[in-house]
Amino acid sequence: MSDSHAGANRFEVRATADSHFGWLRTRLSVERTMMSWLRTAVSLIGFGFAIVQFFERLEQVPGAQPAILPNAPPYLGLALISCGILALVVSIWQYGWTVRYLRSGSFAAIAGIEGAPSSSNALLQTPVILVAIFLTGIGLFAFFAVALRLV
């Protein structure tokens, strides 16, 4: 590639069957990455909530010794739930940025979406984003359920 073309485009995009299927593989790998983020976030939120519940129930067991730091489990639970919510927010942002990039510019010809609106509406049409938004709501509910019990 000559120097005059190097600044104009990073690479040449040709719409062929191979490049379209390559685009599809890339798009599906973005979906798999998002689902990995979701699994991690659900684990963090669930584990944080479970820690809080376990230690609350442990205090009610007859003969159990009182905790040295009684507020430590709720704070640890809040920290884990917060990490899960943060993971969801970061994953939604990363997913949106990547999908917009894959739908823009010269990739639109490969994707077969030339002329289609590339608005953020396209992001809400995928189930993985809807699940991520729903899980963010659950995480926020769990966070406030634990936080309000500390007050």
Overview of the structural elements:
The chain is mainly α and 151 residues long. The protein has one domain (40-150). The mean pLDDT is 84. It has six helices and no strands. The chain has helices at residues 3-8, 17-59, 72-103, 107-111, 121-124, 127-150. The protein starts with a helix and ends with a helix. Helix 2 (17-59) packs antiparallel against helix 3 (72-103) and helix 3 runs antiparallel to helix 6 (127-150).
How far is the N terminus from the C terminus?
65 Å
Shape: rod-shaped
Overall pLDDT confidence = 84
- Please estimate the helix content: over 70%
What is the rounded Rg? 23 Å
Uncertain spans = none
Count of DSSP-assigned helices? 6
Q: Describe the main β-sheet briefly.
A: none
Summarize the structure.
The protein is an all-alpha fold.
